[in-house]
Write a structure and sequence with these properties.
The chain is an alpha/beta fold and 251 residues long. The chain contains 8 helices and 10 strands. The protein has one domain: 3-Layer(aba) Sandwich (Rossmann fold), CATH 3.40.50.300. Strands 6-7-8-3-9-10 form a 6-stranded mixed beta sheet, with helices on both faces. A 4-stranded antiparallel beta sheet has the order 2-1-4-5, covered by helices on one side. Helix 4 crosses helix 5 and helix 5 runs parallel beside helix 6. Bound molecules: adenosine-5'-triphosphate (ATP). Adenosine-5'-triphosphate binds next to strand 2 and helix 1. One of its GO terms (molecular function) is transmembrane transporter activity.
Length: 251
Amino acid sequence: MDAPALDVAGLSMTYGSGPGAVRALREVGLRLQRGTFTALMGPSGSGKSTFLNCAAGLERPVAGSITIGGRTLPTDEAEATLFRRERIGIVFQNLNLLPYLSARQNVELPLRLAGHQVPRDLARDLLDQVGLVDRVSSLPAEMSGGQQQRVAIARALVTRPDVLFADEPTGALDSRTARNVLGILRGAADRMGQTVVMVTHDPVAAAYADQVVFLADGRIAGQMVNPTPEAVASQMTHLDQLIPALSGAGA
Ligand SMILES: Nc1ncnc2c1ncn2[C@@H]1O[C@H](COP(=O)(O)OP(=O)(O)OP(=O)(O)O)[C@@H](O)[C@H]1O
């Protein structure tokens, strides 16, 4: 059987030290098979972004192992950068495209940075898949926020990464544009076999995923397969009520 796309074990992260230290993640474990779309939800401060940043190699955890496509994420900074470039795709709410490069050049950039030949029609094909084939030559400033986000997704997919991490990719978009971007992420999993992990606060967005993983107080607090917006919203209300109890336990 294929190695899981993402295999995280015992992931712990603490910011600061002494009495003011914040334990953002407490021995989190998560294994995701290829071609799956997972939404990560939880109350504010529950550790979602920290999880994403650690799993994507942008921050170094204090403990735990992260295996991506069967390979351990390097701890060495320079090696981690190379690994990320080749094996990981990242889309942030405000991950800026380079303003002086066209959509096509932005999409091709990760391959160029990695020193690879760029197949002639690759960027155009990816831009076609995100519905922007008529904008290949446009600069970011000439495109709407939703169009720029779609270019960012095409760019994140250009290396065919083992995992595509997206942190609130629809946070800044109106609901119609957001649905369009979510449909593209869904299609990346279904049609391209990409593995997608998305942090979101929005139960409707989460319902595009195959499963929702809930975090609370730095721990996994539940998992929901085939989520509906109603079931996700109900679970979130439950978690919000749970938080004072968890904090009070002093664990
Ligand atoms: N760089 C940092 N320095 C200190 N504390 C941090 C840092 N980054 C995050 N934290 C703390 O770690 C905890 C988890 O933060 P994180 O951003 O992962 O939560 P989140 O679930 O993504 O929250 P939100 O939904 O509000 O974005 C919080 O208590 C936060 O204040």
